[in-house]
Amino acid sequence: MATDSFKSALFLPDPLAKWPWKCNVNPQYLQAKTESSAWIQSFTFTPRAQQVLDLGEFELLASYVYPLESKEVLRAGCDLMNLFALYDEYTDTATPHEAQQLATIVMDALRNPDKARPADECVVGEVARQFWQLSSKCASEIACRRFIEAFDMYTTSVVQQAQDRAQNYIRNIDDYILFRRSTAAVKAAFMPIQFTLNLPDEVFEDPVVQRLTDACGDLIMLMNDLYSYNVEQARSDIHNIVTTVMYHKNIDLHETMKWIDDYCSKLVHQFLNDLRHVPSFGKEFEDEVKHYLDGIAYWVRGNDSWSFESRRYFIASGLDIQKSRKVILLPRSDYQIN
């Protein structure tokens, strides 16, 4: 296996250079940020988890990935991004048993948002309960059902990820991409776009709409893997497309960047082509279908922009790296959040 992880730098590809959707901030950002920040700061987390929230600027992420939504939905999106970050942090090094325990807690909280949580329970349970108690009020009944299903799929996959980690198991490339769609929580993350829509299941079951959704989800999670790779390789985290491709194709880091660039470029082409072939679901759903498809496309661009503007992946160097595409590799085990 040609790992090449210890070379001094990597150069990030830019397969989204010609993505037609530009970064667009939701005009309700400041008000939603103020409310969501006050809410999440009302909890007490571990110092490490608090630092993750501080560095992440997740309200900014929400304002970029939900630029078309109302203030109420944007607030839900801000809270959801904070919940995702916490869930990821609290399960990042969890054993399979610990991951299953938290999954059970959080899903119970989401299914029963009016039920008080036990005082000695992990704080993420109460965060999830309060999030959904408020956010479900701005979502249609069908969107609420889909959200719970999507979040359940996410938490279940995180348990499996913990099992993979415990066994030091690296999935093959195709299996990894399918699995990463779940661990990246993209379907749950797309749900706020649907909160005020009344699209029937047949829209989301349509093969073209499914391909469009999967293409955007794959672009999001693959670009996340690219941007988080430096931090993850420093702490020997193997759940990353870069590690997976290097391992199974036995190629170096430079060749892996080229492989991912080509793969993502094909996804961009596929999305733009499929967008021209979306079937009609009736005049009454035309505007809502367009809203959903524009929404997931903005998610791709917004996530990419936030990755460089926040301090989650590149600390204070994000905007410089966005221009140069050059990332200085961290030595193994040198990356620490104290």
Map the helices and strands.
Elements: E1 9-11, H1 29-40, H2 47-56, H3 58-65, H4 71-91, H5 96-111, H6 123-135, H7 141-167, H8 173-183, H9 186-194, H10 201-205, H11 207-234, H12 241-249, H13 253-275, H14 286-309, H15 318-324, E2 326-328
Antiparallel strand pairs: 1-2
Helix pairs in contact: 1-3, 1-4, 2-4, 3-4, 3-14, 4-6, 5-6, 5-7, 7-9, 11-13, 11-14, 12-13
Structure description:
The model is unreliable at 1-6 and 334-338 (pLDDT under 50). The two termini are 32 Å apart. Helix 5 packs parallel to helix 6 (123-135). The chain is an all-alpha fold. The longest helix is centred in the middle third of the chain and has 28 residues, at 207-234. It has 15 helices and 2 strands. Strands 1-2 form a two-stranded antiparallel sheet. It has helices spanning 29-40, 47-56, 58-65, 71-91, 96-111, 123-135, 141-167, 173-183, 186-194, 201-205, 207-234, 241-249, 253-275, 286-309, 318-324; strands spanning 9-11, 326-328. The relative contact order is 0.17. The protein has one domain (9-19, 26-328): Orthogonal Bundle (Farnesyl Diphosphate Synthase).
